[in-house]
Design brief:
By secondary structure, the protein is an alpha+beta fold. The chain contains five helices and eleven strands; from the N terminus they run E-H-E-E-E-E-E-E-E-E-E-H-H-H-E-H. It has helices spanning about 30-45, 180-185, 185-195, 210-220, 235-240; strands at about 1-5, 50-55, 60-65, 70, 75-80, 90-105, 110-125, 130-145, 150-160, 165-180, 225-230. Strands 1-10-7-6-5 form a five-stranded antiparallel sheet. A four-stranded mixed sheet has the order 4-11-8-9, covered by helices on one side. Strands 2-3 form a two-stranded antiparallel sheet. It starts with a strand and ends with a helix.
């Protein structure tokens, strides 16, 4: 039905920062999942629709079957401390941020939709002495309907700091494949959402999404690809408190 095939490994990183194939599915932590649900479904509704104006001046909305791509709250940053047990600002060692998250959907294949996800990781350290490599874990999760985790893969990105350098940058990527059939609304539901409504009709002002059956069908056909740092519970709490 749905799978993730990503070009990053669970444990091995090459010298140039690229990730070696070594797939591993790891259960998502409940705290990360709960945080991701809100932004994931919101992104699906906002990112998978296109608006236009028809000849009558009405607004038309076209739903895309491609999965939305989102960065769950509090998972876009990671802070490393030295010593690790300290949370003092003077003990901050390395800070990294995921930015420029993009998803490109390829819907040419008749059976599947492929979303290629790319992003940048910007890092900064406090001590510029010596060359150093910092490896950071991240996850790529496919969710359905904002609540169901279908698959999760763990990857690694490597930040390389040259001697005397405070900043470093690298990139990460992943690929999510989703069933076209599961992403497509049933014809009857799609007709209810997209049919033209005229002034004076009994249900002209009734939002079709107010029908629980319509909402459930749209939710079931909505997929999201969530990307973020694979944080410990302590790191996630630190991000939420700042």
């Amino acid at each position: 039905m749905v799978n993730v095939a990503s070009h990053y490994g669970a444990a091995r990183v090459s010298r140039d920062g690229s990730l070696v194939k070594d797939y591993a599915a790891v259960p998502i932590r409940p705290s990360t999942l709960r945080i991701g649900l809100i932004i994931g479904l919101a992104a699906a509704l906002a990112g998978c629709k296109h608006r236009g104006i028809d000849e009558t001046g009405g607004v038309t909305i076209t739903r895309s079957i491609c999965p939305a791509v989102a960065l769950p709250a509090y998972t876009g940053d990671i802070t490393l401390f030295d010593p690790p047990s300290s949370r003092a600002s003077s003990a901050i060692d390395v800070v990294a941020t995921i930015t420029d998250l993009r998803g490109a959907c390829n819907d040419v294949a008749p059976a599947d939709l492929t979303s290629n996800v790319t992003f940048k990781v910007l890092g900064q350290r406090t001590n510029p002495s010596g060359a150093r490599d910092v490896v950071l874990p991240y996850f790529v999760t496919v969710m359905r309907g904002g609540t169901g985790v279908l698959s999760k893969s763990i990857g690694r990105v490597q930040l390389h700091f040259d001697d005397g350098q405070l900043r470093a940058e690298t990139t990460g990527s992943g690929t999510a494949t989703v069933s076209r059939a599961l992403s497509t609304l049933p014809p009857a539901i799609n007709q209810r959402i997209t049919r033209r409504r005229r002034a004076g009709e009994a249900d002209a002002a009734v939002d079709p999404m107010s029908d629980p059956k319509v909402r459930a069908a749209v939710r079931s056909a909505s997929f999201e690809v969530l990307v973020g740092f694979q944080l410990t519970e302590d790191q996630l709490s630190y991000n939420a408190r700042r």
